[in-house]
Amino acid sequence: MGSFFYRGFFVFSLLILLEGATCRLDKEFSVSWAVDHVRFFKGGHKLQLTLDQNSGSGFSSKNKYLFGNINMQIKLVPGDSAGTVTAYYLSSEGSNHDELDFEFLGNKSGEPYVLQTNVYASGQGDREQRIYLWFDPTKHFHSYGVIWTAQHILFMVDSVPIRVFRNHKAAGVAYPEKQAMGVYSSLWNGDNWATQGGLVKIDWSHAPFVATYRNFSVQSMAESMGEDVRAVSSEQWKKLQWVKKNFMIYNYCNDKQRYPLPPPECSMDM
Ligand SMILES: *[C@@H]1O[C@H](CO)[C@@H](O)[C@H](O)[C@H]1NC(C)=O
Ligand SMILES: *[C@@H]1O[C@H](CO)[C@@H](O)[C@H](O)[C@H]1NC(C)=O
Description:
By secondary structure, this protein is an alpha+beta fold. The protein has a single domain (about 5-270), classed as Jelly Rolls. It is built from four helices and 15 strands. It has helices spanning about 1-20, 25-30, 235-245, 265-270, and strands spanning about 30-35, 40, 45-50, 55-60, 70-75, 85-90, 100-105, 115-120, 130, 140-150, 150-155, 160-165, 180-190, 210-220, 250. An eight-stranded antiparallel β-sheet has the order 1-4-13-6-7-8-9-15. Strands 2-3-14-5-10-11-12 form a seven-stranded antiparallel β-sheet. A hairpin with an 8-residue loop joins strand 8 and strand 9. The longest helix is centred in the N-terminal third of the chain and has 19 residues, at about 1-20. It is globular, with a radius of gyration of 19 Å. Bound molecules: 2-acetamido-2-deoxy-beta-D-glucopyranose (NAG) (2 copies). One 2-acetamido-2-deoxy-beta-D-glucopyranose (NAG) binds near residues 18, 22, 71 and 217.
């Protein structure tokens, strides 16, 4: 009874803390590409990346993380974003690196963005999945992030898991669990491949292209509010199946041409 009360109180105070303090992006991140194309504003609480004919731009976190619930709210390039790529990812350094990717592929006005994700573990990638989103990601801020534990990685869009990569080390599949990762984002010209396979090029008359960021947050899994973080919950599985059924347009696991024999994690994570 007593401990229940105190735990409740602890969770309550933690919530207030998280609500109250949105993060100063200018303290957490440094410009990694084109300082004159990156803008911090609202007292450092917001950040904008710009792409024009002269340059793209990017930033990287000052800290590195090993496990955690790591999120950023992003409003993607509005209007005609065809050919632009907004990459947002976690990555370790050096050879045999680990990396968790979100790549937002722009489109012509009114046509849907594609969100491509990928997982690298010990240098091994080639695990692309692609989905459409169930909302227009240029109208409002939405949260994009990962819940990364020793057991699994969930790619999250708001409160919806869009992808799971579980730890199948026992089956010989490398898993990101030893290398701390930084958080990165960049906005660049990907028009040789991004939109309709590279058919639609950037229309520079619509530049500058601008993506906006706010409310970066990292929760260590230790303080993740008493949930059992070891298992993917049945609620999360349900949402994931909803995404796969309705919004998935490519999955490396089903690409028979590329992988006549699907990689081992495929049969175990479906
Ligand atoms: C862009 O829109 C076209 C037409 O709706 C669609 O086929 C394509 O998947 C969309 N996204 C990208 C990144 O090409
Ligand atoms: C900021 O992010 C945290 C964690 O993702 C979330 O709980 C909170 O509601 C967000 N705040 C705003 C103002 O959106």
